[in-house]
Design brief:
CATH class of the largest domain: Alpha Beta
Order of helices and strands: EEEHEEHEHHHEHEHEEHEHEEHEH
Largest sheet: 6 strands, mixed
Distance between the termini: 36 Å
Number of strands: 14
Number of helices: 11
Mean pLDDT: 88
CATH topology of the largest domain: Rossmann fold
Length: 329
Amino acid sequence: MPLAIEAIGLRKQFKKVGYKNLLPWKRQSIPALMDVSFEVEKGELFGILGPNGAGKTTLIKILSTLILPDSGTALINGYDICRHEKKIKNFIGYITSEERSFYWRLTGRQNLYFFAALYNLSGEETKRRTEYVIKLLDLEKAVDMPFMSYSSGIKQRLSVARGLLCDPEILLMDEPTRSLDPLSKLHLQQFIKETLVGEQKKTVFLATHDLSEAEYLCDRLAILSQGKIIATGKIDEIKKSLERKKKILLKVKTQTKDISDKLLKIKGVSGVHIFSCLSDDIATLEVALSSEEVIPFVLAQLVYEKIGILSCIPQEPSLKEVLEQVIGS
């Protein structure tokens, strides 16, 4: 399948600002991206997931040709970001939650007209595309009011409308739902997933630190931590590749109160949590393991202790649990 975006060994660092850095031999740099590589197929909703400071915004600014990498490159529809900047700008729409990029005293419509002029749209095309995105984002009631009077939800919808003015094939979204209330956030997520990707078949490259948003929206993900890609793929693939701990849910029949202590003596058992006691002699335990190979030893220990095993169910970890294990370490 043809690629919309291909990043190849992207590196970027920024100079520290301060009086100490005035001396050449004491200048220090902060690495933002280190050998970042990935591929995004056309029509895909691809996510970059990472905590604040991971390098997501730097990456999007490089892909949108706002800044250049120190080394490596990226291809947008096959065009090199370092050599074909003007050509690439015809393909992309950059959407951010940064409100300061709008003119607060102008109305929403006036802002859209201004940015359409920056896109070099003709007068007729400006009017046609502006009316289209206003209707598409349900902005009719607010578009002729000053931008400063808008709620966060309307401001963000106007930001999406601006990104769609030139009808781009590829949308680069930098945390588009940040600071929105839950309902506005859900509506925008549905618009991205169902309208932009589902109906219009656009490619969306979305940066987010929201795990639930990434799981709901993205076809595939790249996990970015401290400037490095630590995993890429579908969510189930990522969980499988990064998972360091396994969990099983045991329902046992026992009157032994020290069952947790006995299981913790087994090599590879890192935690035992009594989930619930259904009756005086039936308990549900959550057992954390280093690997699946430990399960037979757990069951054997229970049998040795003459504890009845009613059920043993492997637990699928959430993406949050997996990332806490990896990024947290």
